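Tutorial sheet, problem 5. The two components below are modelled jointly, 577 residues in total.
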Amino acid sequence: MIVESHTVRFDSLPLDNGATLAPVDVAYESYGRLNAARSNAILVLHAFTGDAHAAGIGHESGKPGWWDNSIGPGKAFDTNQYFVLCSNVLGGCRGTTGPSSIDPATGRPYAMSFPVITIGDMVRLQKMLVDHLGIGKLLAVTGGSMGGMQALEWAVSYPDRVVSAIPIATTTRHSAQQIAFNEVGRQAIMADPDWNGGDYYSGKPPARGLAVARMVGHITYMSDDSMREKFGRRLRDKDTFSFGFDVDFEVESYLRYRGLQFVNRFDANSYLYITKAMDYFDLTSGHQTLNAAMEAVSARFLVISFSSDWLYPSYQSQEIVRALRSRNCDVAYVELQANYGHDSFLVDVAEQTNLVRGFLASTFEKIA
Amino acid sequence: MTADTPRKSPFVRELLGRSDYAIIGDIVEPRTKVLDLGCGEGELLAWLAANKEVEGRGVEIVGAKVSRAIARGVSVHQSDIDEGLADYPDRAFDYVILSQTLQETRHPRQVLREMVRVGRRVIVAFPNFGHWKVRLSMLFSGRAPRTRLFPYEWYDSPNIHFLTVQDFEELAAAEGLSVERRYFLAGHRKIVVMPNLLAETAVFLVSGK
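Model answer (structure tokens):
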């Protein structure tokens, strides 16, 4: 399945911080066909560093999408039955307007003059896209990690537009630990002299800082078990220590490689803005309690967490479930046994596939 | 003690391989909202949804069973029954079902109170520890009883609170619950006399004040 990205431009987008962004581009891809009743659309929401290319083989890149193991004919999100849509988030660097985009007022990249954005802003823009495509109700909104935050935001902000939600390995708000890891990443970028106050688009990007940020991120996405299994204490192309500070261990080599690879595809300022949006996200804001925040929610829910995910631990998913139950919402929840830590929702999808397939089929049946 | 007198056959058919399910399937009114505690793979809820248009929810502690229930389209959440009811609002369900699990809970009295709080009616099915075979097994062997319904060695048994038909009647009375219906079974036979001695399984339909 060869897929192409599309871009749509909107005149302006009002933001939570009071500013207005104008104009705004959104990059998106879609898979499968929208049925005549327009009742089979599923909005897939990507995690922190993802993009609109969720499935199929990219027309230009030749690469599979980030959730290609879950979206496609016969897969969890079966494109023989459903119309699946995915867009790059606001603040991103993969086709949707973000800090690396040109500010029409200056003719130069926004850089740090880009407004600080929120998960709510990202979702507002997605709703404009959904409206633009003529889709009334979404059969499902789904995503893992930051994608799960967006799914929750959708269900709370646009309850009459969402039939069901599948938030995976996510939270209603970041804990101190989650904010702390994001802050380490931000500080690594800003400490790199090449960052230059965010103004680096005509010169060298802060590659070292961004790579270190990514290395920390990767550690938090894995589990102790999966790292032991994958690397252990194995040495890289040698039998003895080098007694120096070049790469000795496999794990060092892996992290350096992933860090460098990341620099080629991701913008450092997007890293700053998007992590801040995640840290600001709090579903309870403006309400007394999480239960009160869920008051308008009418969607059916499937909440999934993973036993080895210590970055978004199961207790955070259980908080979502408890709040939904207190509103007597229709919610299914399971903690899947998986060894890959936070990454499980992307890599260990066999059981997740059965759950999603059954949940979607029964939801689709209910509205038919 | 009173018991419903069977009008036609003293035999009870099976539902999903279980005679207590057949009784529960009869009790539950169509188009109601049902919570099944310890729902396993959601078989009963799926049957009630398909045959009685019931809106069902389940609670189950074993993850693999929860997964299979969700995969068949039943809304089940993974939780401990002893803790899992606290979040529901009062009277959230028309029926709360606890089938063959009361004796496995840590705080059965508290569980019963919670069930009555979140459900207008409560259906409890449990194995009767007062059955004559249980009594004889203990009397003659001098060991923890082992019968068809209590097949476990004492150290492997999931059952941590043994109760009889009479015990449940007394607890229901102490809690001020009204017993609307009672059914007693031995295999597929309905028991009409001396249920505390003759019933292997009891099914109670109770409601709060």
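Marking note: The first strand of chain B starts at residue 33 and ends at 37. Full credit if you identified this.
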